[in-house]
Queue: 3 jobs
Job 1
Amino acid sequence: MSQAEKNHQDHQPVAKNNDYAGLMPLTLFLAIVAAYASLLIGWVVFPMLLYAKYEQPINFNHSLHVDETGDCESCHYFREDGSYAGLPGNDVCTGCHSDVMGSDPEEIKYVEEYVNKDREVDWYVYSRQPDCVFFSHAAHVLKGEMECETCHGDVGAEESTRPYYVNRLTGYSRDIWGENISGINNHDWSALTSAHAGEDDGEDGHGEGGGFTMKSMKMDDCADCHLHMKGVEREGCFVCHK
Ligand code: HEC
Ligand code: HEC
Ligand code: HEC
Ligand code: HEC
Ligand code: HEC
C-alpha cells in the first residue's frame, strides 16, 4: 500500500451511518426555525426596510375643511385652460388663515411657519408619478365623470394625514406600487363598472364611488382600467407618456 493510499484509509469517517440519526430532530428543529425566520423577514422586516416613511410637514384635517368649505373645488379645481391646479397654495388658505384663529397647534405651526414667512408647504404627493408620465385629471374627472375616490380613496373623510411611504428600490410611492410588496394587485373590475353606473354619487357628486378604489397605479393598472372602461388594448405609448 502506498503512503497516499494509507493516508486516505486513515481519514475514512469512523462513525457508522446510524450515528447521525440522533441529529434528525435537531435538523428538523433548525429547519422550522429557519422557515419562521424567513417568513418574519419576508413579511415584517423586509417591508420595514423596503419603505422609507415620512410624515407630512403639517397634519392636515380634510374632514374638518370639507365641512368648512362644503366641497373639494375650493382647494382642488380646474384652471380656465382645463389643467388641474392640484394641491392648493397659501393663497387659497389665507382667506381664512391670515391670522391664527384657534388654539390648534397644527394651525399655529401653519400660520407662523408658512403664512407669516411666505413659504409654501412642501406636501408629499401620495399619487406622484414619474416625470415621463402624462396624466390628465380633465380626461378622467370631466370627460370620464370618475370619482376622486376611485383612484385616491376617500381622502375627504380623513381627519389626519397618513404617513407617506416611498419604496427604496423602485423610488415609487406605496400608493403607486401598492401594499403588496410583489407589486401584483388584482382589481375587481366588475365592482368598478357597477360603481361607475353611479349607485352612490353622494350629494355633492363626491360619494364613495360605489366602494371601488384602485389598490395601486402602476403602468399595468392604468392600462388594465383602460382595457375595461375604454375597451382599448395596446394603446400607443404616447397616450400616457411625454
Ligand atoms: C373656509 C375657511 C378655511 C380655509 C379656506 C382653510 N381653512 Fe384651515 N381651518 C379652518 C377652520 C375654521 C379651522 C378650525 C379652527 C382651528 O382649529 O384653528 C381650521 C383648522 C386648520 C388647521 C388645524 C387643524 C388641522 O387641519 O390639523 C390647519 C393645519 C389648517 N386649518 C390648515 C389649512 C390649510 C393648509 C389650508 C389651505 C390648503 C386651509 N387650512 C384652508 C378654516 C379654513
Ligand atoms: C381647504 C382645502 C382643501 C379642501 C376643501 C380639500 N382638500 Fe384635498 N388636499 C388639501 C391639502 C392641503 C392637501 C395636501 C395634504 C394632504 O395630502 O392631506 C390635499 C390633498 C389631497 C389629496 C392627495 C393627493 C395625493 O396624491 O397626495 C387628495 C386625493 C385630495 N386632497 C382629495 C380631496 C377631496 C376628494 C376633497 C373633497 C371631498 C378635498 N380634497 C377637499 C386641501 C383641501
Ligand atoms: C379606474 C379607471 C382608470 C384608471 C385607473 C386610469 N384611467 Fe386613464 N382613462 C380612463 C377612462 C375611462 C378614460 C376615457 C375618459 C373619456 O374620454 O371619457 C381615460 C382617459 C385617459 C387619457 C386621455 C386619452 C384618452 O384616450 O382619452 C389619458 C392620457 C389617460 N387616461 C392616462 C392614464 C394614466 C397615465 C393612468 C395611470 C396613472 C390612468 N389613465 C389611469 C380610466 C382610467
Ligand atoms: C383616474 C384616476 C384619478 C382620478 C379619478 C382622480 N385622480 Fe387625482 N391623481 C391621479 C394621479 C395618477 C395623480 C398623479 C399625477 C402625476 O403625478 O402626474 C393624481 C394627483 C392628484 C393630486 C396631486 C396633484 C399635485 O399637485 O401633484 C391631487 C390634489 C388630486 N389628484 C386630487 C384629485 C381630486 C380632488 C379628484 C376628484 C375630483 C381626483 N384627483 C381624481 C389619479 C386620479
Ligand atoms: C395607460 C397608460 C400607459 C401606457 C399606454 C404606457 N405607459 Fe408606460 N408607464 C405608465 C405609468 C403610469 C408609468 C409609471 C408607473 C410604472 O412604472 O409602472 C409608466 C412607466 C413606464 C416606464 C418606466 C419609467 C420609469 O421612470 O420608471 C417605461 C420604460 C414605460 N412606461 C414604457 C412604455 C412603453 C414603451 C409604452 C408603449 C408600449 C408604454 N409605456 C405605454 C403608463 C403607461
Job 2
Amino acid sequence: MLVSISSHALADGDPKAGEALFTKTCGGCHKIGRYAQAAFAPQLNGIFGRVAGTTRDYVYSSAMKASGITWQRDTLMAFIKDPSDVVPGTNMHFWGISDAQKLDDLLAWLQANQNAE
Ligand code: HEC
C-alpha cells in the first residue's frame, strides 16, 4: 500500500490506524486508493482541495452540489463529525466521529491517498 509523505502533509495522525478505521467506518460506502470508483458513495481520492459534489461518476444530492464547500482539513473534520450539520440535507447518513485522534488518523489516511487515481 502506497503511503506518500508529501511536503505539505496536513495531518499528524497515523495513516495505518486511519486505514483500519476507514475500512471499518467509511469503507462500506466509500472507496479510496488506486482505481477507486463511485460505489454507494463517491470515491475519496485527492479529496484535499476538491470541491464538494464534483466527481463525475457519482450522482450527488442537490444539497451537496449546492454546498460550495472546498474540502480541506477543517471542512472535512467538521463534516465527518456531523455531516448534516455541515451540509443539511446530505445523503450521507453517518453518525459521525468526534474523537480527535481518530479524526487525525482518518485524515492522515485520506492524505496518503491524495495522489491516488
Ligand atoms: C452509510 C454510507 C456512508 C458512510 C458510512 C460514510 N459516507 Fe461519506 N458519503 C456518503 C454519501 C451517500 C455521500 C454523498 C452525499 C451527498 O450527495 O449528499 C458521501 C459524501 C462524502 C464526502 C463528500 C465527497 C465529495 O465528493 O464531495 C466526504 C468527504 C465523505 N463522504 C467522507 C466520509 C468519511 C471520511 C467517512 C467515514 C468516516 C464516510 N464518509 C462515511 C455515504 C457514506
Job 3
Amino acid sequence: MTSQPNLKISILVMIALFVAGIVCYAVFSPTEPGEPVRLMFQNKAGKVLFKHSGHIEDYGYECIDCHHNLEDDDIYNCSECHEDTGDDDMPGRSDAFHLQCQGCHEDLGAGPVECNSCHAP
Ligand code: HEC
Ligand code: HEC
Ligand code: HEC
Ligand code: HEC
C-alpha cells in the first residue's frame, strides 16, 4: 500500500517533471520542425560536423545563402540536384559542398579551410 504522503510526493514529482519537459521543449527547440540543428556527414575522408542552426542563429545566414535554389524550388537536399558525379555546368555533391563551405570560409577569412579542421577521423 502506498501511504498518503508518498503519493503526494509522487504527484508533485510528476507535475515538476511535466513542467520541466515543457520548459525544455520551449527553450531548446527554437528551430522549425524538419530544420536540422546539426548534421554529421560521414564519408571516406572522415566525419564532418556541421552546425546548421549555428550558421543561422550565431552567424546570421539566410536559408537562400546556402540553399541557393529556393527561389524556384523548395528542395533542401543538395544531392537531389548535385549527384555524386558532376560536370562542367553542375558540380557533383562533394564539389558543391567544398565550393560552398570552404568557399565562404575562405572569402571571409573565418571558419575552417584545412581538410582536417572539417574532416575528423
Ligand atoms: C550555411 C549554410 C546553410 C544555411 C544558412 C541553411 N542551410 Fe539548411 N542545410 C545546409 C546543408 C549543407 C544541408 C545538408 C543538405 C544535404 O545533406 O544534402 C542542409 C539541410 C537542410 C535540411 C534537411 C534537408 C534534407 O532533407 O536532408 C533542411 C530542412 C534545411 N536545411 C532547411 C534550412 C532552412 C529552413 C534554412 C533557413 C532558416 C537553412 N536550411 C539554412 C546548409 C544550410
Ligand atoms: C534544385 C536543384 C539544386 C539544389 C537543391 C541545389 N543546387 Fe547547387 N546548383 C544547381 C544548379 C543547376 C547549379 C549550376 C548553375 C548555377 O550555378 O546556378 C548549381 C551550382 C552550385 C554551385 C556552384 C556555383 C558557382 O558559382 O559555381 C555550388 C557551390 C552549389 N550549387 C552548391 C549547392 C549546395 C551546397 C546545395 C545544398 C545546400 C545545393 N547546391 C542545392 C542546382 C541545385
Ligand atoms: C555563407 C558562409 C558560410 C557557409 C556557406 C558555411 N560556413 Fe561554416 N562558418 C561560417 C562562419 C562565418 C563561421 C564562424 C567563423 C568564426 O567565427 O571563426 C563558420 C564556422 C564553421 C565551423 C567552426 C565553428 C562551428 O560553428 O562549428 C565549422 C566546422 C564550419 N563552419 C563548417 C561548415 C560546413 C561543413 C559548411 C558547409 C556544409 C559550412 N561551414 C558552410 C560561414 C559559412
Ligand atoms: C569546410 C569544411 C570542409 C573542408 C575544409 C574540407 N572538406 Fe571535404 N567535405 C566536406 C563536406 C561537408 C563533404 C560532403 C560530405 C558528404 O556528402 O558526406 C566533404 C566531402 C569530402 C570527400 C568525400 C567525397 C566523396 O565523393 O565521397 C572527400 C574525399 C573530402 N571531402 C576530402 C577533403 C580534402 C582532401 C580536403 C582538403 C583539401 C577537404 N575535404 C576539405 C567538408 C569539408
